[in-house]
Structures are given as structure tokens and as C-alpha cells.
Design goal:
The complex is a heterodimer of chains A (436) and B (364). Chain A is of the alpha+beta class. Chain A is built from 14 helices and 12 strands. The chains are: A alpha+beta (436), B alpha+beta (364).
């Protein structure tokens, strides 16, 4: 009809491109400002912080030049959080206490109780994750039209539990199957206006994304066989842990190892293999997203992603390095401050439900100071993580995305508002909505 | 008078279909006139137009009308914003009553949980934990504390086991339990650490620090502290406390979320709460100590003397600090201990000089 962008072939053979506008500096200030307010309000501003950061990111992502819009309301989030607290407080408080009691009484240890209370939260966790996704999609718009996700959080939770059980039983061999079917469950229930999305493809295609991870495991395994059995590094018949640690100590002191050693440098294969494993894990997570995005369709619409695994990994490595660097500096400062002012025992003296005789030390001032440094360090961590990881990651994911076919948009109409009393309250309360 | 704006790159979205319509933009008679391709013109009163907040980039902004939740105008001419008097004003709030209701409900639920349900349940259940369970819990906690207090980072903090010292301590314990029933088994330990403190753990574990024995000027002062801690054991305070923490820590974790790791706030708050419930527990343990000491023919004033020594060393502290340290104010307790001692009675030291020297050398 009137909208040329939807029907005319573009000069770009990728189809309708997704742009990403917005500068890193602007995000930094927004994150810093909202993070600061969050800290001084004891965390209550976080609902506003999250809303504002999402608004910013959503508006930066512009398929065909038109911004996405996030219409979530902080008050709605606060309300949802309160609702979740009312419901969960009884669940968590009473259940935890009873579990601890049973654990002490029956198993004579606390660990059984911790395990049980952790296990009890897992289904809730998946439930909350789906609900949070539904809320975010229901509050996302593009070209004035709402996205949406059908109800089905419990269906998602039990499927996730079964998939995890299968994955664990097959020592991870069927992980791609889990990734695929859980994503398909969500995609097949996702709408843009009146149009339903469809996840095509086959789960086995995701093994391609796992190649670096599998290779790293093979290298580590082969390396272990080579260095400990085939052509051992330590040429000695009686190898003991004690002997190994002793010869390691001696080598550190510049002496000769206690055991005859052949080709020490070959041990480098292990750190390299572990680095490969880390690379493989990030590569899998994002490349599997790309493979599945390329098989998402709707009537008259196709999606295409050219996301690069190595690029995503380098964003993660560099961004996390910057953020961790600051965190380390901050923690070092914190420790120095604590030791100087409270004595070395302040680091160790964490009380665990003991009844001390008690005495007073005038150190409230120092505690306050420590607390504020502590909060500042975590504030900066969040700000730097948003700026140096989330931002480049979002930008890369947006810019590599396009819509080759989009004439189907013309037949879409608006969907009803999904009023959602508890918003993402459960996810917030269970601490899994930390990411944008 | 009419004012025109650059409509190039601007799009109107009607809020029904995701189709971009090219527009011409004018302001006349306090209305933004949005001219559409099909010849129709929309009139948006400029006082009702808002700019979407927190928009990234300078390449275009989005306008909305307060009376229409879905229609959007994407515009590129920034001079338009200057003509909108309420561009950045917030939309009128709605549903605040509901919010207030749930906020109150949440506060009430958490308060009910932490101040009433959890303590009630913990107190009831603590009695039903079998002794083996309590001992296992106490033992695990004791080992944790020994590891945590170690400063060398190699081995857990050593337990002092000089045989003559242990005998003297045993003597003291027996003298104290002379009057009462031996239902609760007490395991007594001295840890080699200069901290002037003592604590009790679930399952009858009572732990003194070497620093406390070093600070004491006579065995009665150590006996007084010991009696106080046995008081906690008898009323099962440590077990209650462990159960309470299990219940309330999870709830507080919910409330504060993870805005900054959360742990620090959680820790301080938990201390505040436990201080609230243990004020009474402390007073009870003190009262128990007076009776026990009298039963062993030791003056209850010894507890006061010990506290006084602590006060000289560390000061009484202000109310805030004493609250955080989960004990009633020292001066008060010193006075109470003095008042509990019967001035007409003739008390004797709990250990003779040889035993006292042995106890002082327990870590040697």
C-alpha cells in the first residue's frame, strides 16, 4: 500500500536492515545516573533504572529506521514486585524453615535442607523466566504495534525441567535439543500484532554451534591421555599427589623437580583447552540464537541474522575485562580500607548464628564508609557492564539482523493489551531479571 | 498563524497496522496538524503531546498523544519539540491505590513473616529437633567458625588442650551444673584466639576464647561467662537462632534483591533483627547465670565485673552499636549483676589458685 519499505525491493540484498543508533557515552551517563539513584534509595529505584535503560536500548534498535518502543511502567514493576513478595514470602520463609528443620532432624546436617530449598525454587525459576519474557514482549512495540506472548508459564516450567533432566542424563549430549525446543516453545507463542511467529528448523542443526565447545573437550581429553598415559610428562612409577605438589614447590623455588619430567611445556595444552571451553560456551549460546533466528518465520516475513561468534566472544572478553578490572581495584581498595581501620579480623569475623558475650567497638562510622565504598564498587560494575558488554552486544546483534521478506507486515493489525498485574515481579524477586 | 516543520523522514503509525505513512507537519491553532498521504489531516492538541523519554540517539524522536495509547508519530525535525509546552511532562498517574494496597500488603506480609511467623515456628520446632541433629549442626558450625577465624589460612584455629587446664575447666563446669539437672550435655572448648568473647552453638557447644581467660582476673569471672552461655544452651537459643535465620534470610533476600550484591544490607538487617529477638534471650541467660553462680557458691557480681572489664577495654558504645552487637547495654547488665548478688552471703572462689593457673595456661 503506502509503505514502500515493505514492498519495494531495497538496494540492500539483506532486505530491511536493522539499525542501531545511540552513543556509548549517553548510555554510560544514563546507567550511572540511574544506578546512583538505585544505590541511595536502597534498591527501590531499580525498577525505574531498568525501565529507563530498556527504553534507551529499545529506542536505539531501529528496524528499517523506526525505533522499537518499550512501554513498561516502573510503577507497574513495583506493584508486581510487591505482589510477588506477598506470595513468595510465605513460600520461601516457611518452606525454608521447615526444610531446615527436617534436614537437621532427619539428616543431621544443613546441606540437605539447602539442597531441598534450592530444588524447590527451580520450577518457580523457569515459571518466572517465562512470565518475565511475556511481560517484556507485551510491553514492546514497533511501528505502534504490540508484541505479545501467549500464556503458558507452567507448560514452559515443566518442559524445562524434563529437558534439563534429559540433558543431564545424557551428560550434555542432548543440550542442543533442549535449547531448540525451549526456544521453539516461546517463539511459537510469540506474536507481533495479530501475526504469530513460527520456529522452523531441526534441533540437530544446533550441533554446528557447539563445534568449538566439542573440539575443546576433545583437545582436553586427548591432551590428558597423551600427557598422563601415552607419553607421560612425569617419568616415574610412583606418582603421588604429595610428590607432585613437592616438585611443583621446588620448581617454583628455581630448583629441579623431584620427578624426572619430559616436555613440561606440553602442559600448556590445559589452559588453552579451558580457554577454548569458555570460548565454545559463549559461541554456542549466541550462534545457536543466530541459527534459530534464521529459521524464524511468519506469514510473509523472514528473519536473517549474520551474528559473528568470534565477535561476540571478543565483546564479552574485552568488556568483562574492563568491568572486572574496576571491580578488582575497588575490592582491593575495600580490603585495604577494612584492614587499616578494623584490623585483619574484620574480614574473617563473619558471625554465623552464634551467641557472643558481646562488647562494643566504636566502629559504626567505618562500617558506613565501607558500606558506601562497597555499594559504589557494585554500582560501577553494573554501569561498566552495561556500557562495555550489553551495549556492544546489543549493537552487534541488532546490526547483523535484517528482514529479507516483510510484505506480510501489511496484513497485520493491533493486538489487545496484555494487562499483567504482577509484571516481572517473580523474576525480580527471585533475582533472575538482573539482565536487561 | 501556521508553523511548518520538515516532514522528511517522518512517519505516522496509526496504532492498528505497522505501516508507515508519510506526513506533513504544521502547528496551527494550538494543534499539531498531521497531514496524511490520503488527504486526511489529524489534529493533535499540542498540550497533550509528549515526547517518549530516554530515547537513544539524535536521529529522530517519537511523539505520542496522552489521549491515544497506541498512535505514534516518528519525527526528525527537532525544532518541533520546542513548540510542545508539555513535551516532557509525565502522564497522569493511574492505579496508585492498587499500588499502595499491595505495598502495604507486602510490608505486612514480610513483617508478619519475620517478626511473628518465623520466630513462632522456629521456637516451636527448635524443641523437636533431636539431640543428634542439633549436635551435628553445632559441630558443623563450630568447624566453620574455626576455619573462618584462622589467620594463617592453613589449618582451623587450634583448640586448647593442655590436660591440667582442661581438668580445671571441667571442674568449673561441674561446679556450675551442681544444682541443675544435667539434661543438656555441654561440650566445652577453648579456642586459641585473642578475642575477648564466648559463644554457644546448637547441640550444647560452648566456646570460650583464650583472650577472655587472659582478661579475667579471677576464675569466677570466667565461670560467670560460662554460666551465661550455658543459659543460652539451656533455653536452646542457638538452635532457634539457626532456624530463624534460615527462614528470615530468604525473605530479606527477596525484598532487597540484588541491586548491589545485596549481601551487605542483608547481613546488617539480619543482625538488627536477631538483636531484637535476642535482647530478651540475653537477659534470660544473665538471670540463668545469677542462679547458677549462686548454686555454685560464686557471687553473681562476677558477671558484672567481667562486663566492666570489657567496658574499660572497649567502651560502652552508643545505643546503635550495642543494638548491632545483639546485646543489651553493658552498664545496665553490670548494674543488674551487682544487684543480683546477695551482700550478706559469703562466696568462695570457684577454683583454687593452682587450678586457676592451670586454666590460664590451657593454651600453653
Amino acid at each position: 500500500m503506502k509503505d514502500a519499505a515493505l514492498t519495494f525491493p531495497t538496494t540492500d540484498d539483506r532486505g530491511l536492515p536493522v539499525e542501531f543508533v545511540g552513543k556509548r557515552g549517553a548510555l554510560f551517563w544514563l546507567a550511572l545516573k540511574t544506578g546512583f539513584l538505585t544505590v541511595i534509595t536502597f534498591g527501590f529505584y531499580r525498577f525505574w533504572m531498568k525501565t529507563r535503560l530498556r527504553r534507551w536500548f529499545w529506542s536505539a534498535i531501529r528496524p528499517g529506521g523506526h525505533p522499537m518502543e518499550y512501554v513498561g511502567d516502573p510503577f507497574e514493576k513495583l506493584l508486581g514486585f510487591f505482589i510477588a513478595v506477598v506470595i513468595l514470602t510465605f513460600y520461601i520463609g516457611i518452606i525454608n524453615l521447615v526444610l531446615m528443620f527436617v534436614s537437621f532432624s532427619v539428616f543431621s546436617s544443613a546441606s540437605a535442607g539447602y539442597l531441598a530449598s534450592f530444588a524447590g525454587v527451580i520450577p518457580l525459576w523457569f515459571y518466572a523466566r517465562y512470565r518475565a519474557r511475556r511481560y517484556v514482549l507485551a510491553r514492546t512495540r514497533w511501528r505502534g504495534v504490540r508484541f505479545g506472548l501467549e500464556k503458558g508459564a507452567w507448560g514452559y516450567a515443566w518442559r524445562a525441567l524434563v529437558h534439563w533432566a534429559v540433558t543431564i542424563l545424557t551428560i550434555g549430549l542432548l543440550w542442543p535439543r533442549m535449547t531448540f525446543f525451549l526456544e521453539k516453545y516461546i517463539t511459537d507463542r510469540t506474536y507481533f500484532g495479530s501475526m504469530r511467529l513460527h520456529q522452523g528448523g531441526h534441533w540437530a542443526m544446533l550441533y554446528r554451534a557447539a563445534i568449538p565447545f566439542i573440539l575443546s573437550i576433545l583437545i582436553l581429553g586427548a591432551g590428558a591421555v597423551w600427557l598422563f598415559w601415552w607419553d607421560p610428562v612425569v617419568v616415574s612409577s610412583d606418582v603421588t599427589i604429595e610428590g607432585i605438589s613437592r616438585s611443583f614447590d621446588e620448581m617454583m623455588n628455581g630448583g629441579e623437580p623431584a620427578f624426572p619430567v619430559v616436555g613440561m611445556e606440553r602442559l600448556l595444552i590445559f589452559p588453552l583447552g579451558l580457554a577454548g571451553l569458555l570460548y565454545g560456551a559463549i559461541h554456542y549460546r549466541f550462534v545457536s540464537k543466530r541459527l534459530m533466528a534464521n529459521h524464524k518465520t511468519a506469514e510473509g516475513i523472514t528473519v536473517s541474522s549474520h551474528l559473528s561468534g568470534p565477535r561476540v566472544v571478543s565483546i564479552y572478553v574485552l568488556g568483562s575485562f574492563i568491568a572486572y578490572l574496576f571491580l578488582m581495584l575497588g575490592i582491593m581498595g575495600l580490603v585495604v580500607l577494612a584492614v587499616v581501620n578494623l584490623g585483619p579480623s574484620s574480614i574473617m569475623g563473619i558471625e554465623t548464628g552464634q551467641y557472643g558475650l558481646g562488647f562494643d567497638i566504636p566502629r559504626a562510622v567505618w562500617l558506613m564508609l565501607l558500606a558506601s565504598v562497597y555499594l559504589t564498587v557494585f554500582l560501577m560494575w553494573n554501569v561498566l557492564y552495561s556500557t562495555f558488554v550489553t551495549f556492544p552486544l546489543m549493537r552487534h546483534m541488532a546490526k547483523t539482523l535484517s528482514l529479507p521478506q516483510r510484505y506480510g507486515l501489511q496484513s497485520i493489525s493491533q493486538r489487545d493489551r496484555d494487562s499483567f498485574a504482577e509484571a516481572e515481579g517473580f523474576a525480580e524477586a527471585l533475582d533472575l531479571g538482573a539482565a536487561i | 498563524m501556521s508553523m511548518g516543520f520538515d516532514g522528511f523522514g517522518s512517519s505516522y503509525f496509526d496504532g492498528d497496522r505497522p505501516l508507515s505513512e508519510e506526513v506533513s507537519l504544521h502547528i496551527a491553532n494550538q494543534n499539531l496538524q498531521i497531514g496524511l498521504d490520503d488527504g486526511n489531516t489529524l489534529f493533535w492538541p499540542i498540550k497533550d503531546i509528549r515526547v517518549l523519554p530516554d530515547t537513544a540517539g539524535k536521529q529522530g524522536f517519537v511523539l505520542r498523544l496522552t489521549t491515544d495509547p497506541v498512535a505514534r508519530l516518528f519525527a526528525t525535525d527537532r525544532s518541533l519539540i520546542a513548540q510542545l509546552p508539555n513535551a516532557t511532562r509525565r502522564a497522569p498517574p493511574k492505579g496508585r491505590g492498587k499500588l499502595a494496597f499491595w505495598a502495604l500488603a507486602a510490608v505486612a506480609a514480610v513483617a508478619l513473616q519475620i517478626l511473628v511467623l518465623v520466630p513462632l515456628l522456629a521456637d516451636r520446632l527448635a524443641v523437636f529437633i533431636p539431640p543428634e541433629g542439633e549436635r551435628a549442626l553445632g559441630k558443623a558450625t563450630f568447624e566453620q567458625i574455626r576455619k573462618a577465624l584462622d589467620e594463617t589460612g592453613l589449618e582451623p584455629l587450634p583448640v586448647c588442650e593442655n590436660p591440667t587446664g582442661v581438668d580445671a575447666l571441667e571442674q568449673m563446669r561441674e561446679a556450675l551444673s551442681a544444682g541443675s539437672d544435667p539434661a543438656e550435655e555441654i561440650s566445652l572448648f577453648v579456642l586459641d584466639h585473642e578475642m575477648v568473647n564466648a559463644f554457644a552453638l546448637p547441640g550444647g557447644f560452648v566456646v570460650l576464647f583464650r583472650g577472655l581467660i587472659d582478661q579475667a582476673e579471677n576464675p569466677d569471672e570466667v565461670a560467670a561467662v560460662l554460666a551465661h552461655e550455658i543459659g543460652h544452651v539451656t533455653s536452646r537459643d542457638p538452635t532457634r537462632h539457626a532456624l530463624r535465620s534460615a527462614g528470615s534470610i530468604g525473605v530479606l533476600g527477596l525484598l532487597f534483591g540484588d541491586f548491589a550484591g545485596g549481601t551487605a544490607v542483608l547481613f546488617l538487617t539480619e543482625r538488627l533483627i536477631s538483636a531484637n529477638y535476642s535482647q530478651q534471650a540475653e537477659t534470660d541467660a544473665d538471670t540463668f547465670a545469677y542462679t547458677t553462680l549462686e548454686g555454685a557458691n560464686v557471687s553473681p557480681a562476677a558477671l558484672g565485673t567481667m562486663f566492666e572489664r570489657l567496658r574499660e577495654k572497649y567502651g560502652d558504645g552508643n545505643r546503635l552499636i550495642s543494638h548491632f552487637l545483639s546485646h543489651p547495654r553493658l552498664s545496665q547488665r553490670i548494674d543488674n549483676a551487682r544487684a543480683a548478688a546477695d551482700p550478706s552471703r559469703d562466696f568462695a572462689p570457684i577454683l583454687d589458685d593452682a587450678q586457676w593457673s592451670a586454666l590460664k595456661a590451657i593454651c600453653g
